[in-house]
Input
Amino acid sequence: MFPSRPARAAAGASVAVAAALLLGACGDSGGLVSAGATPTASGPTRLWPGEPPASSPAYDYGEAETEVVEGVKAPGEDIHKVDPVAVVRAEIAAHPEMYSGSGAPYAGTASRMTDCGEGGDRARCPVLKAYYRDLTGDGRDDMVLGFRLLPGNQTAVRMYTFQADRLVQVLAGDDAVLAVELADRTVIIRSPAAIVGYEYRTQWTWDEDQLAMLLTRDEILRVGGSAKPPRSPSSSPSASPSSSPSASSSASPSASSSASPR
Output
């Protein structure tokens, strides 16, 4: 909030007085002034040093997993000439257990692909607009593609690049998506968290050794709103003096939060 006009005037007068004092004391300038004591640096403390280190990852994030897209080519390896709908159809054909098999979780996506062709309802097509940027640093554009995973509310986020005349999927992420952002050689996926006022952000960055996008950051961040539960009427300062101590100091069950991160 900007200060009011009188407050600005008072601040201006204070600055003028301070400037005059500084000019009057210019004869003492030029010396070093102590900034106070410097806090002692404290390094990390390792807990349970006697425990053996883990020999395998706790979770499978799909790092460095790539997949060749069969049947999709482009002249001159120009990814702008690749049909995004054809790419999604190729994934559906390669993974029937996910899209068309018995009990497939995303059967709705496969059934709606008929709306992506001529004569279909384009608004019902699950394939989203493709975006192009050089994310691998080889001087050629790569393609970031999204499509809806139906009948749920998740979105598939994919990235493709050409390697030795083959179209290769180098990133695959499925999540409830708030937004997808591109920055330098990084794809950032923002997803809702179970805690009000927070969101998940995963960051995938191109790795030249693995020739794939690696998960380089996975975090939960505050994005606004109050992280504190509302105060119950029984604990407010305006509570009646006749209230019993136990009633005035206990919080309402509705004020507690049991949400946990994914």
Q: What stands out?
A: The chain is about 20% helix and 25% strand. Residues 46 and 129 are 47 Å apart (CA to CA). The beta strands are 67-68, 131-133, 142-149, 154-163, 166-175, 179-183, 186-192, 198-207, 212-222.
